[in-house]
Amino acid sequence: ISSPFFPLDSSWDAAYKRELQTFQDIGDTGEIWFGEESMVRIIRWLEKHKVPLDSSVLDIGTGNGVLLVELAKSGYMNLTGIDYSPSAIQLSEKVREKEGMSNIKLKVEDFLAPSAELSGFDICIDKGTFDAISLDPSDAAGKRELYVGSLCRVLKPEGFFLITSCNWTKEELLNEFREGFEILEELPTPKFCFGGRIGNSVTALVFQRK
């Protein structure tokens, strides 16, 4: 993931510069946010609901692009990844080349101010980018509103939005995306036990744009 609001010399871009160097040195793609199971969860949902393989998919805050590679391996053909960090896009390009997935499109984009051509997607996926926005010390609430507005612009009516979060509960996410979206499904995530109470450290939801 990367934050679409921190300056480019921030910790996000610096982290991806380090991961890019590591990949060039030893071929390691770096951090997989939320782990492998989060990617499997997304792909299983798409397959279960027989989402056509030619559906246009946008990965918001693609990071190292590994999710897109896994989607391509599962047969999805119309894949786009965006990230605010140029180093993240450089890394994802290297990963794409290594895997021979030339059909994956990658772009440096600020999702809070998306370019005009970023539109008409059937599916949008977020694994942690909305979380990163939520941590912004400068007007996080305003940034979240911009995010929802951008999502409405880039996602087709009746399109699907799959979000994985470690900052927000189901109820909080329902509130954040109440304008223009309806909940379809909560996806199972690992549970933890603390002080005798059972909870989820990760929330994964599927919304549909109205």
TrEMBL record:
<dbReference type="GO" id="GO:0016279">
    <property type="term" value="F:protein-lysine N-methyltransferase activity"/>
</dbReference>
<dbReference type="InterPro" id="IPR025714">
    <property type="entry name" value="Methyltranfer_dom"/>
</dbReference>
<dbReference type="GO" id="GO:0032259">
    <property type="term" value="P:methylation"/>
</dbReference>
<keyword id="KW-0808">Transferase</keyword>
<keyword id="KW-0489">Methyltransferase</keyword>
<protein>
    <submittedName>
        <fullName>EFMT2 methyltransferase</fullName>
    </submittedName>
</protein>
<dbReference type="InterPro" id="IPR026635">
    <property type="entry name" value="Efm4/METTL10"/>
</dbReference>
<keyword id="KW-0539">Nucleus</keyword>
<keyword id="KW-0963">Cytoplasm</keyword>
<dbReference type="InterPro" id="IPR029063">
    <property type="entry name" value="SAM-dependent_MTases_sf"/>
</dbReference>
<feature type="domain" description="Methyltransferase">
    <location>
        <begin position="56"/>
        <end position="185"/>
    </location>
</feature>
<dbReference type="GO" id="GO:0005737">
    <property type="term" value="C:cytoplasm"/>
</dbReference>
<dbReference type="Pfam" id="PF13847">
    <property type="entry name" value="Methyltransf_31"/>
</dbReference>
<keyword id="KW-0949">S-adenosyl-L-methionine</keyword>
